[in-house]
Design brief:
single chain, 159 residues, alpha/beta, six-stranded mixed β-sheet, two-stranded antiparallel ribbon
Length: 159
């Protein structure tokens, strides 16, 4: 079984989670950053996992575009979906459901929020200002959940 993890990341959290997840999956696993814009043939993979970071309630544009453009091919795959962000509970469920096309949400065998990070030095001035004002955070914070990544991997390994 070949698995492809496709992701869009701004400051690296989604990529970090993709790499952690890749180590927990069985079979051949390949990673693809949507910023690279290389030719990609997803028909060569049995499983496709798509991840993206959430900013101001929205998933990265390249993740959204990829999902819509490849919807017909993805419907025939075993699909997993994940997001990275700092919210929890009901907000996360809404963000996850809004991040991907409804047909893909319904088809996905695994869906999860892996948590997120605020790494101050990776932010621009405006982002730092917003995080300090809204989240009241002025130092690096990570709430990436190894348990959620483990559970997601177990589900994907079973299908």
């Amino acid at each position: 079984m070949k698995t492809l993890i496709i992701y869009g990341t701004k400051h690296g959290c989604t990529e970090k989670c993709a790499k952690i997840l890749a180590e927990k999956l069985t079979g051949k696993v390949e990673l693809y950053n949507l910023k690279e814009k290389k030719n990609l043939d997803i028909t060569l993979y049995d499983k496709v996992i798509i991840g993206g970071s959430i900013y101001i309630g929205k998933i990265r544009k390249e993740v959204s575009q990829f999902s819509m453009e490849n919807l017909n091919v993805l419907k025939d795959k075993k699909v997993g979906l994940y997001i990275c962000g700092m919210h929890e509970d009901e907000v996360v469920e809404k963000q996850l459901n809004d991040a991907f096309p409804q047909e893909l949400i319904e088809k996905a065998v695994a869906k999860e929020s892996f948590g997120g990070e605020f790494i101050i030095k990776k932010m621009n001035f405006l982002e730092r200002l917003i995080v300090k004002k809204v989240a009241k955070i002025d130092k690096d914070v990570s709430n990436i959940s190894d348990e959620k990544i483990d559970n997601f991997a177990k589900v994907m390994n079973r299908v």
